[in-house]
Amino acid sequence: MDKPVLQVIVGSTRQGRTGRAVADWFHGRAVDSGAFEVELVDLAEVNLPFLDEPHHPKQKQYVNAHTKEWSALVDRADAYAFVTPEYNHSFSGVLKNALDFLHYEWQHKPAGFVSYGGVSGGTRAANGLRQVVSTLKMVPVLEAVHIPFVWELLGEDGTLRHNDAMDAGADAMLAELAKLTGPLRTMRLSEG
Question: Which residue of 105, 127, 133, 156 shows the fewest CB atoms closer than 10 Å?
Fold first, then answer.
C-alpha cells in the first residue's frame, strides 16, 4: 500500500499572513516523519470564490470548474493538518468557505490542527474547527500544535523559528494521524 497522503492546508489568505511560514515549518516536519506523502495546499493559491454552487455539497453535483478541481484535490488526501490563525476567537472565513464547498470528500479522514495567534496560540480557532470537521465526519485528533505570540518566532527572512514544544506537539499529532489513517482508509475503501 502506498504511503497515505497528508494535506497541510493553509487556512489564511490575508496579505502579510503568518500562516504560510507556519505551514512551511509543519510541512517540513511532516515530510521528515516519513509517515506520509505530504502536500501543501495554500488556500491563497486555490483561490475559491465565496461558495457559489447551486446544489448542496451532499448532492456532489458540482457545476463550476473550481469546485471540481477542489473536490479532486481534497478527495486524494487520506488526512489533513489545518494551519489556522485565530481571528476574533475563531478560524478564518476563507477556511470555513473551503470546508463548506465539499461534503463526502472530507469524510472518514483524520484531521489535526496547527494554530497560531496571540496569548491563546489559536486554541479557540482549533476548538471551533473541531466542531466543523466532526460535522463533516472527519476524525479530529486531540494532539495539536498551538503557537502563542507567533510573531515573536518569525525571522527577518520570514521563516518560523520552532521550539521544543512545537516540535513535540507536531510529532505527537503526526503519530496520531498516522495511526488513524490506515484503518480509516481501509474503511473508506470497503464502503466504496
Answer: 156
